Amino acid sequence: MTETADNAERDLVLTRLIAASPAALYRCWTEPELMRQWFTPPPFKTVHAENDLRPGGSSLVVMQGPDGTEFPNRGIYLDVVPNERIVFTDAYTSAWEPSQKPFMTGILTFEPEGEGTRYTARVRHWTAADREAHEKMGFHQGWGTATDQLAALAVTL
Amino acid sequence: MTETADNAERDLVLTRLIAASPAALYRCWTEPELMRQWFTPPPFKTVHAENDLRPGGSSLVVMQGPDGTEFPNRGIYLDVVPNERIVFTDAYTSAWEPSQKPFMTGILTFEPEGEGTRYTARVRHWTAADREAHEKMGFHQGWGTATDQLAALAVTL
């Protein structure tokens, strides 16, 4: 994937070499039972996940805060290639219901590298301002901790 | 398709019974040579069309004004069912490059009705304000004239 200057302004990227197969990482991102185990840094929990893995299929992840408040995150899948790539966005809450605000598109890739997988999560925003806001909301720490949990789970599969 | 109150606020809809087959209307929307013949109310012309008909495939239509100025319209397809349905949006300029402003999602359906086809173009906006702006830009007249041209062409196929 070519990184243009324009994309650098709008993208937040996390990449890591993980000692697990692309298939194991893909499972962690697509099986609700696995997703609940790694997706949320404590003290938050992931209490529900739905994954209709096809272009236009719905994605719903419900996170729960320490006081029990639930935070549903709705989106749709745009592109799904098993064990290789998942693209999703919050621009729609279902096919084809526009969301209140198109904020981000997530592009996940799982590439074989050595004995493991080069895992890259690219979060692309519609505007540079949204990218900056997401970074200030704690993107790097939040996604970093979640990715530690993802890697720890994937190596056991 | 259920019309909710919320969608009524964000949708512009044109529907017409056309004496042509769903396949003929689908061809008019997907074959560049046909698209150039009906897509633009005069004095504008459609001088170029590209249609990569798959989820994430690019759509490019270049319109030309009477003084020769060209207006490229870039988008992507989200859902394509031959002879039945086409969904596209300008929220991306290609897969998966966010556009400057997500403005609309077009949902076209071609349903057999009697000897002809119930053609419905539903243009759904992210906000009620964008819907209103599109209406004031002349949606009904522009799409109405284009649909007259579409129907005239489709019955000859």
UniProtKB/TrEMBL annotation, chains A, B:
InterPro entries: ASHA1/2-like_C, START-like_dom_sf. Residues 20-153 form the Activator of Hsp90 ATPase homologue 1/2-like C-terminal domain. It comes from the Bacteria. Pfam families: AHSA1 (PF08327). Belongs to the AHA1 family. This is Activator of HSP90 ATPase. The lineage of its organism: Bacteria, Pseudomonadati, Pseudomonadota, Alphaproteobacteria, Hyphomicrobiales.
